[in-house]
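Our preliminary data section would be incomplete without showing what the modeling component actually yields. Below, a chain of 402 amino acids is followed by its predicted structure, encoded as tokens that our downstream tools consume directly.
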Amino acid sequence: MPAGLERQAGDHLIQYEEIVGYHLEQAHSYRAELGRPDPTLAGRAAERLERGGLRALARGDVPAAVNLLERSAALTSPGSLALLQSLGIARMEAGDLEGADRALTAAIERADTEGGPPLAARAALARSRLRLWTGRATPDELQTEAERLIPELDRLGDDAGLAQAWLQLTNVHCFLSEMADMEHAAERALEHARRSGRVREEADSLFWRCTGALYGERSVEEGIALCQRFLAEASGPMAEAGLVEILAAFRVRNGDVAEGRDLYGRGDKLYRELGMRLRAAINLQCRGTSELAIGDFETAEMVLRQAIQEFEDMGERAVSSTAAALLAHALCGQGHYEQAASALESSEQLTDPDDRLNQALIPSGRARVLAAQGEVAGALALARQALTVAAELETPERMRKR
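Predicted structure:
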């Protein structure tokens, strides 16, 4: 029966592959219950489910990707290196950061037996990026790894791996507030993503390219035009969601607050429809930053608290630390200084020593709390410390808005 299904599907197999995979999976399950397991049948089912999962991941349908890839892995436990790597990425997008780490670690361990330097490198890059988010890796470690792998991947002609490596560098430069370097890395990632036909990496590259424009030296008009151009070129809802998020920030900065809020809402809806919990939470933080910049401290507090809760539920630390610092400034704006002090303490506990933005946000927040308490000398000292760090950041407009 399963073989007949495959023959009947014929040229339309890709369209019906998930259905065929399901029936092969069920046939294997029935045989196993009868004490007659068929490894060949299990392998055919796993292959169909894996292909369906990879297509779901590429188009940004994260729940479907996780479901199909986990079922495939269960049939061929623990699964191939390529399967485990894709499962790790899908879980990371879904906000299952611990599950993602387990899958990517298993992929790296399999690299020794399965060979294939490109796949091993991609799995290592994906896990490093994940561990930056969870506070288990440093920006220096990620930069060293990416710069070591880029020549090797270039020699192998692995454009997909090169896109991942350059995207890793965009994360590093973002973390260090090096916006010009981040734009450059995003441009290189975009080049390799398009060359390899990797839609997900292309979407990420477009997002980081526009993020660099948002927090760099480009004018608002240039940034809006860049986002709109990329939106016209973008393929798929994942790219659209990321670009809408950055366009929303530009619109608010341009004074178009209602339109910006609508765009943030559109981005949130897209991310949640795609099952991308981590990105949805980051979108909330970006909106909170915009609300803080225009002085709507109550809305900023509401949005940032939601973002922090979602980050905590996922075990994310890197972005959550900044959200907590921003929350403190929103609370100061409302005169809630005791709550602000608590938020700053939380931020400090989560902050990596290399996080330069937080090195400005935290002391500036503490300065506001001390000033409200009448401790002028201490407030001035902390304010000067924050200004010294801010002067070194490549985000002058962003820091002025704090």
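The chain has three domains: 1-104, 116-217, 276-402. The chain has 21 helices and no strands. Preliminary results of this kind motivate Aim 1 of the renewal.
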